[in-house]
Amino acid sequence: MRIARFSIDGNVAFGAIEGDKQDELVLDIIKGIPFADFELSGTKVPVSKVRLLPPVLPNKVVAFGRNYAEHARELGNEVPDAPFAFFKPSTSVIGPGDEIQYPSFSEEVHHEAELAVVIGRMCREVPRERVKDVIFGYTCANDITARDVQKREKQWARAKGFDSSCPLGPWVETDLDASDLTIQLTVNGQQRQLGRTSEMIHSIEDLIVNISEAMTLLPGDVILTGTPAGVGPLNVGDEVAVTIEGIGTLTNKVVKRG
Ligand code: MG
């Protein structure tokens, strides 16, 4: 099931998406929130009549770095032998169609297409064989990075945590085997990144075992799983699109921060 979060007439709700043609998609409004038991209301609205929002409002976004060997090498980094994570704050999250605001303190902002895992239930110290039980679904993410700031500051709070640096969407796909999906990114229609999730050094299971060893994960929390090779600069005016097989396309435009 594809579950979107949206606003209509000033109200925010979740809905299950029906249909396949992009311009004919319909939302069946969900009663309550999709993490608990929920029912479809049967009240339907066309997607074209609503504004899609970030599909979840995470308490935290935990992002893993250098999880594709070719990407680690393209930036001159060693391939790490253990997973390592950093945070992106909840205020960095934006939705499909929202604007990425180019920050004033950077001159080199990069795109990073990533598979995002959405957590469905509160959990800690998740054993490998239970990981599938804590996953709600998957969405597309763009780990927008001020690369110049990342190079000069030891912690990445500013480089990877500025407002609008975590586009998520367009919805969460709950029925998906995410172990071998095509992940690609275009800028103004030109392909920049292309990889497969099977190229991850540490699997989704590894990453969730690793982070849940340290902290409690909450429903709606998001885990970013690393980016394939081909990262590069974004400029004001660019349109950047992340497409993941079986999920959909997340498109955002880059604007100057006002
Ligand atoms: Mg990244």
TrEMBL record:
What InterPro entries does the annotation carry? Fumarylacetoacetase-like_C, Fumarylacetoacetase_C_sf, Rv2993c-like_N
Q: Which Gene3D superfamilies match?
A: FAH, Fumarylacetoacetase-like, C-terminal domain
BP term (GO), one: carboxylic acid metabolic process
GO MF entry, a single one: acetylpyruvate hydrolase activity
**Does the keyword Metal-binding belong to this entry?**
yes
Domain Rv2993c-like N-terminal residue range list: 1-55
- Kindly state which keywords UniProt assigns to this record, in alphabetical order: Metal-binding
Task: Tell me where in this chain the Fumarylacetoacetase-like C-terminal domain is found.
Answer: 60-255
Would the keyword Metal-binding turn up in this protein's UniProt record? Answer: yes
Q: What is this protein called?
A: 2-keto-4-pentenoate hydratase/2-oxohepta-3-ene-1,7-dioic acid hydratase in catechol pathway
